[in-house]
Amino acid sequence: MRPTRAASALVAALLAACGFGAAGPGTASAASVVLPHAIAATRSSDVPSGAEIYQKRKQLYDAISAKTGLDWQMVAAIDQYERTMSRAHPKSRPKKDDAVVGVYVSESDWSGNLNPDPDDDNPSSIRFFYGIGRDGSGDGRAEREQDEDALYSVAVQALKQGISDDDFSIGLWEYYHNTRAVQRILQYAKMYRHFDRLDLRGSAFPLPVGHSYSFRSTWGNGRSWGGYRIHEGTDIFAGHGVTVRSTCYGVVEIKGWNAFGGWRIGIRDLNNLYHYYAHLSGYEKSLKVGDIVKPGQTIGWVGSSGYGKPGTQGKFPPHLHYGVYRDRGLVEWAFDPYPLLKRWERDEFKSLRNRK
Ligand SMILES: [Zn+2]
After folding, report:
1. 203 alpha carbon to ligand 1 midpoint, in Å?
2. Residues with CB under 5 A from ligand 1 (ion)
3. Kindly report the CA angle at 334 between 332 and 338, in degrees rounded to 5?
4. pTM for this structure?
5. Which residues, in sequence order, are CB contacts of 143 under 8 Å at separation 6+?
6. Domain segments of the chain as ranges
7. What span, in angstroms and rounded, lies between the C-alpha atoms of 194 and 294?
8. SS3 of 93, please?
9. What average pLDDT does this structure show over 232-252?
10. What is the pLDDT of residue 337?
11. DSSP structural state of residue 301
12. What distance in angstroms lies between residue 52's CA and the mean position of ligand 1's atoms?
């Protein structure tokens, strides 16, 4: 499956629309960009807590699952992928503050391209104009901004070819016309199936926090050992062989040699961030591409591999190069992981202290 011409037009549109703000709003880096009044708003008593939101979502996924035959993990995976896109593109995919789902469907996709009424919520006239809007809640109306209707309508699209995993992948491809979207949704479904729960929040600092290591903000610093024109990441200096751990719940997406990064590993998380660990001296033996990991799980060891043919080591002091990239749909942007690293380190010190 290759990107279509429409997809490359989309890439161009995305590039134009997004500018070069590397650290997009939302998810993992939200704390640093949220405005004070927004923080106050999220603390008011009628806003559900994190656990309550997960509970609400799970109920909805179960309901859609019962209606469509898709397992809840697949429904959750579609919704979570869409949520990451809505967070990456808040202007073109506006969501109501109280929306439980992340799914976004444009007016014309919902009501049908030639439908004279873009706000149409009549299921039969929407069908007549080939809109994708369906009534998922059973109230006789197909409302674009109603959680159950929106999620059900997208699930129905994904199921057009059938319900087996292969049919489902083809259905996703036909709906999104984007291999990354399909890959992401299948990765997320695998994670939800593996842990058999929706709430997969948690983080860890990539090295054991008791160990001796040092790092500072090296974003954009051209003299570091990352192999990029600008340095896209943070270098954490530590002794050869110090444990490297996953910072998140995720799926191993890439593992192997890269001329610049040496032995490196890439892990995808549920916020659609790609965590990149480079210059390792070795990998945790049992780890394969497609495996699921959790925060704090050992994935390899600090080394100085890279800058040459496979196995090259020692061209620079041993360190972990850690980078984070946000998938924005068709392109991926690096952002500075330093604030995240500081936060994870602090959180871990705090929980270690509390355990004493
Ligand atoms: Zn580096």
Report:
1. 21
2. 224, 226, 233, 235, 321
3. 150
4. 0.83
5. 121, 133, 149
6. 37-195, 213-355
7. 11
8. coil
9. 96
10. 96
11. E
12. 39
